[in-house]
Specification:
Elements lengths: L12 E10 L2 E7 L3 E5 L6 H15 L4 H4 L19 E10 L5 E10 L3 E9 L2 E7 L7 E7 L6 E7 L4 H8 L5 H18 L1 E3 L25 H11 L1 H14 L6 E6 L5 E6 L7 E2 L5 H14 L20 E5 L8 H15 L4 E6 L2 H8 L4 E5 L3
Parallel strand pairs: 3-15, 3-16, 10-14, 14-15
Antiparallel strand pairs: 1-2, 1-4, 4-5, 5-6, 6-7, 7-8, 8-9, 11-12, 12-13
Length: 381
């Protein structure tokens, strides 16, 4: 078994994305820090990079390949030419660091003529733990081999060609040998790191109306913002109080608090409290930028239990590091709001429980570069 290497990460986190051949990207590697923001002109690939991250996360959660890539041909590089059998595809991968050290996952996907995974490799410290290959195009499975290091070096078995093999290993590997235990530890770290992702895409037009109280878990479009604030108002008073301070820093003010009002029809609406003698402002009256600002701030101040995401029940929240995925972070934000949000992201990420990956416009990118703890990746061709 490979010698143990101490990792700087106590919780699994994705520390690198690789777009080996994906859409307009070839041989591209992007390190991910606590706060990583991609910038560049329209068409430079910001959404492509973030989309690849979300795709890997969904595969790690067990989503079928066809659901993750409904238009697979769109991800094939334009320069890719079909082989003699008319096959074209794309390749992506990532590194997930954590208690067992960095683990690499690399994936080759055939997009045409039929969508399927044709190759997957999981490695740790240069040691191959899992490899799959398409041996028979007539079958719906791939041939997999994972490390055993027992009486036989590897175990071979077929795996479905439309699911991520790494995510299936905890159900297929017994863990009775040192090699199998290494495979399980690496696979579980990879899956936890990938699944700990929450895409936040605030839609201000859907955030203004009062909502019916329910489970109180924030949707990715933040349409139920008032419902979640109704929950945090009583269940998370310290976080709620901090949100009020953040609102004061980024909303037309002054703001003295974030309140929730129960309406006669059973719905609830959120309000920004003002100075004594001034009426509160319902969230429905705020501008798009203010609503986007509040939504992203709330996701930074909460955890998996308050977000509508595929929770990893078998892993305590304290052992997970949530990554927020936010495209166009500064859309509709003025410089003051962008500065406040960048500072909040850097501050929150410093404790190792929450990370942020997103994209940002050129004007805000300059401020982001001046913010300690924030890494800006310029994709300008």
């Amino acid at each position: 078994m490979a010698a143990a290497v101490r990792s700087a990460f106590a919780r699994p986190v994705v520390t690198e994305l690789r777009l080996s051949a994906y859409a307009g990207r070839r041989s591209a590697t992007y390190p991910l820090g606590p706060v990583t923001l991609f910038t560049g002109p329209s068409g430079s690939g910001k959404s492509t990079v973030l989309g690849a991250y979300e795709a890997l996360a969904r595969l790690g959660a067990g989503d079928p390949l066809g659901e993750v890539f409904p238009d697979p041909a769109a991800h094939v590089p334009d320069s890719a030419r079909p082989d003699a059998q008319g096959r074209r595809g794309f390749r992506i991968g990532c590194t997930v660091d954590g208690p067992v050290g960095p683990v690499r996952l690399d994936l080759a996907v055939q997009a045409e003529p039929e969508l399927r995974i044709v190759g997957e490799r999981l490695t740790r410290h240069g040691r191959t733990l899992l490899t799959t290959a398409l041996r028979d195009p007539g079958r719906t499975t791939v041939q997999a081999a994972w490390l055993t290091a027992g009486s036989t070096p590897v175990t071979r078995a077929p795996l479905p060609g439309d699911l991520l093999g790494t995510a299936l290993l905890p159900l297929r590997v017994a863990g009775s040998t040192a090699g199998q235990r290494e495979v399980l530890a690496a696979a579980e770290q990879t899956v936890v790191g990938l699944r700990s992702l929450f895409p936040c895409t605030p839609a201000p037009g859907r955030m203004r109306a009062p909502v019916v109280p329910g489970e109180g878990r924030l949707l990715r479009d933040c349409a139920n913002l008032a419902e979640v604030l109704h929950r945090t108002h009583t269940a998370c008073p310290r976080r709620h109080q901090r949100l009020a301070a953040v609102a004061d820093a980024g909303c037309a003010g002054p703001v003295t608090g974030v309140a929730v009002e129960e309406l006669p029809d059973g719905t609830v609406q959120a309000l920004l409290a003002r100075d004594a003698g001034r009426p509160a402002t319902p969230l429905g009256r705020l501008g798009d930028g203010e609503l986007r600002y509040l939504a992203v701030a709330l996701t930074l101040l909460t955890g998996p239990g308050v977000l509508a995401m595929d929770r990893i029940a078998e892993v305590p929240d304290a052992m997970q590091c949530l990554t927020l995925l936010t495209d166009d972070l500064d859309r509709g934000l003025d410089p003051r709001q962008a500065t406040a949000l960048l500072g909040l992201a850097a501050d929150i990420s410093a404790d190792g429980h929450i990370r942020l990956a997103g994209s940002i416009g050129g004007a805000a990118a300059a401020e982001a570069r001046r913010t300690p703890g924030v890494t800006v990746v310029d994709l300008t061709p």
